[in-house]
Amino acid sequence: MIDITILITLFYLIINITKNKNKCRCTMANKKNQRNHRNNHCRSMQRRWSAAKYREKKVKSQAHPSTENCDKLEGSRIINLDKLQQYVNELTTHAAKCGSQIILSGEQKSGLASIISSHCLKCSFIIPLTTSNKESGPKGISHWEINLAAVWGQMCTGGGHSKLKDNMSILGVPVMSPNNFINTERSIGQWWQNQLQDEMKEAGQEEKRLAIQRGDYHEGVPAITVIVDSGWSKRSHKHTYNAKSGVGVITGKET
Fold first, then answer.
1. Which of helix, strand or coil describes residue 128?
2. Which of 103, 149, 212, 228 has the greatest number of C-beta atoms within 10 Å?
3. 211-250 pLDDT, tens per residue?
4. Whole-prediction pTM
5. What are phi and psi of 212, to 5 degrees?
6. Which residue has the higher pLDDT, 244 or 174?
7. Cβ atoms of residues 65 and 122 within 8 Å
8. What is d(CA 166, CA 110) in angstroms, rounded to the nearest whole number?
9. Structural domain boundaries of the chain?
10. Sorting pLDDT into bands at 50, 70 and 90, what band is 65?
11. Where are the alpha helices (DSSP H) in 64-160?
């Protein structure tokens, strides 16, 4: 027979072992829950930190625009001196008030003309530099003066867009696109035509006035003396060639 004392001891021993196992299970579960809670808390903090950094970066980018996203300003530019003086006045006035550095931040090109933007690093105030004046052309279309001068020069010297591009590339100056060149060329041609018509009408009125003053009439109409010349293209290589078009010039004797 087993002693009652031994049975009681074994019973208490089994109870203690069971309690310890349950206690270990609870401890492990608590540790696991704490670990999960810490991980969730860390992930939540990381998301909040990332969101805060994103908002801070967005605010900074709005307050101080970065030049990395802008086209890098390089090469040379042709700048009107009056525009440059106006820009320097605005620049120095703002720098004296704000006391911060001002840097170039971007450029909007239109042929040889540009609008160069600069901003203050402290208050983000933008100061534009317009490199050329604008001129109102035919039909109310405005053109940059530097573009008009460049195309006008090529028309007078027999050049074109390719020649202008070669010259400007050597100087390191961005040149206008072919379409811009053609549109400017057409505007100048229309400008010339309108101007010539006005001058011809003015010269005709002056010739008429002088004829009346002299008393020169033909069948009751004031008569004027003119000098006429004309010409057309010819070629004589293996065959005779006459152009179907030519040029004629009529010049009033008195004007």
1. strand
2. 149
3. 999 888 888 888 888 899 988 887 666 667 777 788 888 8
4. 0.58
5. -65, -40
6. 174
7. no
8. 18
9. 1-63, 64-132
10. very low
11. 81-98, 145-157
